Every structure is written in C-alpha cells, then in structure tokens.
C-alpha cells in the first residue's frame, strides 16, 4: 500500500518536474514581456519584476506592423492546415485501402522528399516561384508549406485509416453508399482524432516557419509573424520587451487551436466498431 | 427476394487462382451454406456475390441479370459481417436505418422498418445506445437488424456467429433459422462449422482448396459424401477411414484391410480386383456387438461426452473410433467386439472419389 503511494508520488513528481522544465521558457517570455525597459537590465535575475506593465503590448499593437503579421500568419497557417488535411486524408485513404500500379514508387518518392535539409531547396524554389509571381505573396507560402507538409501528413493519416477496419466501409457500400459516401459518412468521422492531429501539427509548423517566410517574402505587407519578430532586432539593440509581448500574443492562436481540437486527439472513437 | 446464379465463376490474384469454376444455382428463398476449412475460398466467393471482390472469370447473375460489374450498392443485397462492422459513431437505430436513409426513405417508413426489426430482435431498449455499450450478442443482433430493415434481394452471412460463445451461438443459430423461415429470404451463409452448416442449410456447398467438392442437402452430404474430403469434413467425430485392397469373389466385393482383416461389402463394386480403396464408416455407425460376433478391438481411450461415449479402438494396429449413446460402454476396457454394418460402409477409390452404390 505505502509502496504504491510512494510510486504515485514519484510518478506525479517526475511529471511536475518535466512540466516545470518545459514551461519555464514560456514563463520567461511572459515575464520579460511585462517587465518595463528600465528594469530589464537593472534588476538582475528575478522571477517577477518589482513593477509590471502592459506598455509593450500597447506599443506592439498600436505602433508596429504586428497586427498585419499576425493576420498574415493566421491566413497562411490555417490555409495550409486546411489544404494539407484535405490532400493528406484523400492520399492517406488511397494508400491505406487501394492497390494500384506505382503505389510503392509514390511512397518512396514521398519519403525521399523528407530527406533533404530545406535550406538546400530555398534557391530552386525561389527560382520557380518568381516567374509565377508567387514570391512576396501569401499564396506562394501556402503552396510551399502545403507541398512540404503533405508527405508526412499523408503517412500520418494513412496510419489512422489503417486502424479503421475495412469491414466498416464495406458494410456501408453494401448498405447502399458509394465509396466516397462511405468515406465521408463512416470513415472520416472515425478519423477525427487523426484529422485533429494533422491539423494541429501542420498549423503549428506553418505558424512558426521562418526560413521560407524570410526568403520568399520581402516587405512588411505579406510578412508572417516569425519574420515580423525579427523587426524587433535592430542593428544595435534588441527590443526584448516588445519582442516577447509579440511572442506571447503569437502563442494565443496556437493555444486556442489546440484547445479546440484536443477532445478529438484523446478520443478512442472506433471502440465498439468490431468485435472486442 | 431473388435467385442467384453462378456460372463457372473464378477468381485469381495474378497467376494465383483462388477459386476455380464454381457453378451454383441458388433458388429464390433457399438457404445455402458454404462450408469448408479456412482458406478454401468460401469467404472470397461470398464477397464476390456481394461485389466486394472482382470476378476474374465466369458470370454472376441475380434474378437472371448479369451483375459482374455492378457496384455493391447497386446489387441490393445485405450482408452480416463476422466482425459485425457496426458504425461506432451511430446509435443502434442509426446503424439500422443507415441504408434506408441513404435511399432517402421518409421518416415514417424508416421508423416503421426499424421498429419492426428491433422488436423482432428484442433490441427496443437499446435503440439509443452506441455499439460499444452493447454485448457481443446484442451487437450481432444489430448487425442482423441492419440487414433485415432493408428487405434486400438476398442476405449474405460471413461467419456471423464465430465471435460468440458456444451457448449464444446455438441460440443465434436457431434465431437465424427462425428468421429465414419467417422472411423466406434467399440466403448465402459462410461458415467453417459443420454443425451450423447441417442445421441451417437447405443445401450445403462443401468447398476445399478453391473448388466445390459437393453440393447437396445436409443429409445427402452426410449419407453420401462425394469424396474423402466431404466424408471427413461433415460429421463429428469424423468418419473413420481404413485403407485396403479390393478383392472380388462370386460377384461380391470385399476389402482386405492393410492389417489383413477382410470386410465384406455385401454387394458388387465395379472396380478391378486388387485396386487400392479407402473404406469409410462413421463412428456412430460402428456397432459394439456381443462377444463372438464381429472382430475383437482393443479399447485405447474412452471419451464420455454426456450424450454418449467415444471409444478409441485398435484392431491389429488399425485405429478407429466408435460413438455410442450406450452408457454401458463407458466402463469398456480391455477388448470389445465390434461389427461394421454393410449398409453403412462408404467406399472411395484411390483418388478419393466415392464409389457409388449404383455404380455396378
């Protein structure tokens, strides 16, 4: 009995330590964002400044291009998440259910695309997008992000489809559904956890992507927020307070997004479908 | 309801044939059971009728119409899966009404159909539940309910009872039989359980290694199995097989078993003297005789089943079984005398094909 209790305490304790470790940078972000500039270097290392202020937030919202960055990021990240989820669920379903010529070649090609460091591809992609007028445009970013995320998301979705018994859509097809109707009405609702995971994964990846956003976009009008954060870095100083305030605000949509999808992430929807 | 005709239907994956030339005419209202060991192609055949597998060669017709290239949804058949395949995100009522909703039936029609099916299957209290809140037997009923609300042309069953425990299986078996008697629906039922096949079928199709071995009523298969496979597959405990050589004398054939014992068939078998044959007799047809008649057999093992007793016997190195409801035999030990009634003997030629009684 006591052994079990000690085990529980040790278990919870370990989790607590991990959470503290993982969340500390976020706390520091928050702390710096509310620290007035005059206290930032003068107070030494403290867990909370002696005087806190929302001035940085006011400044960022009212006097910087951050709202534009924020809007751009939201557009790019949600469009990418949406496009990737549509493509990868269709492709993942095909890989999971159909036998077709060239299937393994396609899988191999998709794997190969994941093997290169992205830096290598910046120049060729710029060269390709430039004549199409897709540099310095959000559409261009969405296309690039979608292309890079589809392979992994497809494999992710495929594994979720693999977990759903084939019998279910066969039963639906015998009940009178076409394959697509069976996919839409029977399989997709059961794949919600997978869709949520894919949406979340792609959204965060697109939300925080810096390399391509930096290389393909020039000028504030279509910059995304990771690029925007760099504007707080000037030649001679870094405005940490404002940068952190912008960072905190940038966390909000990602947090909201995960709050929205978390109930699908944890649900075991297929329970009771077949024997067991 | 409908008839289903298969004309030399075959299936292969690449060069690898899994089903060869199946010919079968299923009449309107018949209950056909496809039976055979796993991997014999029975489920594949069923899935071909359903439209879930392509037909490589031959013709499949439902109600006289060729349906080879028709999608499952357009064949108007219902199927009960081994796994039940209930839609987990739908309630019992929604599961049962899915096919009708796809056909855009009115709410009144749907409610009436679901109501009568759920009443028939005793599912009324569970209509609002999700499948995961049901027991195995209840899920099985929902799967049946989903099939019957539609009044389809035919019912297909893919080992629907094999996930249930023995008691429930017996109960559902009777229920399926009752339902068939009531609805008179053309049914094709796949199982590897020969008891299910015997009890349910109007005709059994015994299959092995991708081809049909025999088609006939349960008693035909039991009384006159067409070959060694069917003889061995139908019946439990399985038929005894004893190898020997045919010996003809004075118009009456005899089989000389490998241990030297002679078994007279009491009739003439039109095969060459000295041909290798297999003698078959069911354990329940071996008779324990009073001493002095028949042959002496050593009792090796006694298996009481409650209903009766299975004796494992050895006669000069040749082992076989006897089944009897005579409880006295439970005390059997040492040696007993047995006879093999001539009318119960089956003879198979060297290729395992039955030598018919009429084959004179």
Automatic annotation (TrEMBL), chain A:
This protein's source sits in the domain of life called Bacteria
Task: Keywords in alphabetical order, please.
Answer: Cell membrane, Membrane, Transmembrane, Transmembrane helix, Transport
Name one matching Pfam family: BPD_transp_1
Q: What is its main location?
A: membrane
Say yes or no: keyword Transmembrane present: yes
Q: Which residues form the ABC transmembrane type-1 domain?
A: 70-261
Q: Which Gene3D superfamilies match?
A: MetI-like
Matching entries from InterPro entries are given as:
BP-dep_ABC_trans_perm, MetI-like, MetI-like_sf
Localization per record: Cell membrane
Q: How does it sit in the membrane?
A: Multi-pass membrane protein
Transmembrane segments in this chain: where? 12-30, 74-95, 104-126, 182-204, 210-233, 245-266
Family that this chain belongs to = Belongs to the binding-protein-dependent transport system permease family.
Its protein name is Carbohydrate ABC transporter permease
Automatic annotation (TrEMBL), chain B:
A GO MF annotation of the entry reads: ATP binding
* InterPro entries reported for this sequence: AAA+_ATPase, ABC_transporter-like_ATP-bd, ABC_transporter-like_CS, ABC_transpr_MalK-like, ABC_transpr_MalK/UgpC-like, Mo/tungstate-bd_C_term_dom, NA-bd_OB-fold, OB_MalK-like
- Name the UniProt key words of this record, in alphabetical order: ATP-binding, Cell inner membrane, Cell membrane, Membrane, Nucleotide-binding, Transport
Coiled-coil region? none
Q: How does it sit in the membrane?
A: Peripheral membrane protein
Q: Which PROSITE patterns match?
A: ABC_TRANSPORTER_1 (PS00211), ABC_TRANSPORTER_2 (PS50893)
The record, for Pfam families, names: ABC_tran, OB_MalK
Which compartments is it annotated to reside in? Cell inner membrane
* Principal localisation: membrane
**Domain ABC transporter residue range list:** 4-234
Entry keyword annotation includes Zinc: no
Q: Does the keyword Chloroplast apply?
A: no
Matching entries from CDD domains are given as: ABC_MalK_N
Give the record's family classification: Belongs to the ABC transporter superfamily.
| Protein name according to UniProt | Sn-glycerol-3-phosphate ABC transporter ATP-binding protein UgpC
Q: Which organism is it from?
A: Rhizobium oryzicola
């Amino acid at each position: 009995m006591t052994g079990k209790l000690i085990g529980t305490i040790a278990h919870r304790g370990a989790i607590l330590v991990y959470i503290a470790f993982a969340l500390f940078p976020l706390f520091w972000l928050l702390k710096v964002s509310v620290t007035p500039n005059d206290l930032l270097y003068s107070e030494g290392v403290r867990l909370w400044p002696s005087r806190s202020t929302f001035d940085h937030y006011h400044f960022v919202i009212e006097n910087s291009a951050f709202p534009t960055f924020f809007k751009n990021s939201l557009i790019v990240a949600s469009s990418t998440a949406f496009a990737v989820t549509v493509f990868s669920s269709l492709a993942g379903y095909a890989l999971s259910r159909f036998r077709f010529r060239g299937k393994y070649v396609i899988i191999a090609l998709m794997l190969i695309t994941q093997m290169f460091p992205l830096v290598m591809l910046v120049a060729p992609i710029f060269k390709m997008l430039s004549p199409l007028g897709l540099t310095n445009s959000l559409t261009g970013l969405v296309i690039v992000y979608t292309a890079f995320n589809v392979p992994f998301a497809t494999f992710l979705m495929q594994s979720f489809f693999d977990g759903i018994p084939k019998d279910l859509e066969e039963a639906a097809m015998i009940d009178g559904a076409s394959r697509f109707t069976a996919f839409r009405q029977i399989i997709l609702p059961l794949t919600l956890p997978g869709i949520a995971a894919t949406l979340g994964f792609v959204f965060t990846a697109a939300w925080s992507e810096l390399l391509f956003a930096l290389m393909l976009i020039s000028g504030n009008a279509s910059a995304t927020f990771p690029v925007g954060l760099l504007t707080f870095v000037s030649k001679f100083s870094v405005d940490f307070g404002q940068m952190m305030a912008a960072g905190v605000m940038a966390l909000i949509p990602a947090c909201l997004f995960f709050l929205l999808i978390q109930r699908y992430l944890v649900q075991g929807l297929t329970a009771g479908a077949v024997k067991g | 309801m409908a008839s289903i005709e298969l004309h030399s239907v075959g299936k292969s994956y690449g060069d690898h044939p899994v089903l060869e030339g199946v010919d079968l005419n299923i009449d309107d209202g018949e209950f056909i059971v496809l039976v055979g060991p796993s991997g014999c192609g029975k489920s594949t055949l069923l899935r071909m009728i359903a439209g879930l597998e392509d037909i490589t060669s031959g013709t499949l017709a439902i109600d006289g119409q060729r349906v080879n290239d028709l999608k499952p949804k357009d064949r108007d058949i219902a199927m009960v899966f081994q796994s039940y395949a209930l839609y987990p995100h739908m309630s019992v009522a929604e599961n049962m009404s899915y096919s009708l909703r796809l056909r855009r039936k009115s709410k009144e029609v749907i409610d009436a159909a679901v109501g009568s099916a759920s009443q028939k299957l005793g599912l009324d209290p569970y209509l609002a539940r999700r499948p995961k809140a049901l027991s195995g037997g209840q899920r099985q009923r929902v799967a049946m309910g989903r099939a019957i609300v539609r009044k389809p042309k035919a019912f297909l069953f893919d080992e629907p009872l094999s996930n249930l425990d023995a008691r429930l299986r017996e109960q559902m078996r009777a229920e399926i039989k009752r339902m068939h008697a009531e609805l008179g629906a053309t049914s094709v039922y796949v199982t590897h359980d020969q008891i299910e096949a015997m009890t349910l079928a109007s005709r059994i199709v015994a299959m092995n290694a991708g081809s049909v071995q025999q088609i006939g009523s349960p008693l035909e298969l039991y009384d006159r199995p067409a070959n060694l496979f069917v003889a061995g597959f139908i019946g439990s405990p399985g038929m005894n097989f004893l190898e020997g050589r045919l010996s003809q004398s004075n118009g009456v054939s005899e089989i000389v078993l490998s241990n030297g014992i002679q078994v007279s068939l009491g009739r003439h078998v039109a095969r060459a003297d000295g041909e290798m044959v297999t003698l078959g007799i069911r354990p329940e047809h071996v008779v324990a005789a009073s001493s002095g008649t028949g042959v002496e057999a050593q009792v090796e093992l006694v298996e009481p089943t409650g209903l009766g007793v299975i004796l494992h016997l050895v006669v000069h190195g040749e082992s076989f079984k006897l089944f009897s409801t005579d409880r006295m035999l439970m005390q059997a030990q040492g040696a007993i005398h047995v006879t093999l009634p001539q009318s119960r003997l089956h003879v198979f030629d060297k290729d395992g094909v039955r030598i018919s009684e009429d084959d004179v």
